[in-house]
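wait is this the right file?? whatever heres the structure
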């Protein structure tokens, strides 16, 4: 079994922009509300992220989107955010209720924020190194 197959069978993988401060904060938010470790993570810029993109015939041009890979199912943007929220602990799971808003409106709001995320939240020069206690949840 390849590392990509293993990574997909162990749970869902959240692909995110590793140099985006907002995205890194979102990952920390998910980690704190996912004590069972359902979600694993890979920065889109990392080797693991690039391998997973390639394995699913996805383009690196997806950098403006959070991507959730669950086996063969791939979700993007607001659908991915709500699918993640649905599995989190606490009131955060209520965010999944936004699914009643039509996707074009949700994704329009998502793109509006995504297009301004570096300006509003900042940008790192390199991907953040995860804390030692959660490193096993990040693909290398």
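ok assuming it is, sequence goes like this
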């Amino acid at each position: 079994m390849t590392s990509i197959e293993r990574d997909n069978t162990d749970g869902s993988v959240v692909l995110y922009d590793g140099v985006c401060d907002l995205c890194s904060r979102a990952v920390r938010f998910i980690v704190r509300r996912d004590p069972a470790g359902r979600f694993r993570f890979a920065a889109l810029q990392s080797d693991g992220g690039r391998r997973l993109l390639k394995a699913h015939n996805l383009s690196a041009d997806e950098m403006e989107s959070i991507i959730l890979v669950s086996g063969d199912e791939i979700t993007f943007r607001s659908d991915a955010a709500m699918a993640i929220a649905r599995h989190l602990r606490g009131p955060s799971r209520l965010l999944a209720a936004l699914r009643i808003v039509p996707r074009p409106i949700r994704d329009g709001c998502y793109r509006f924020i995504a297009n301004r995320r570096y300006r509003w939240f900042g940008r790192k020069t390199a991907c953040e190194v995860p804390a030692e206690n959660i490193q096993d949840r990040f693909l290398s």
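The chain has a mean pLDDT of 84. so i think its the right one actually
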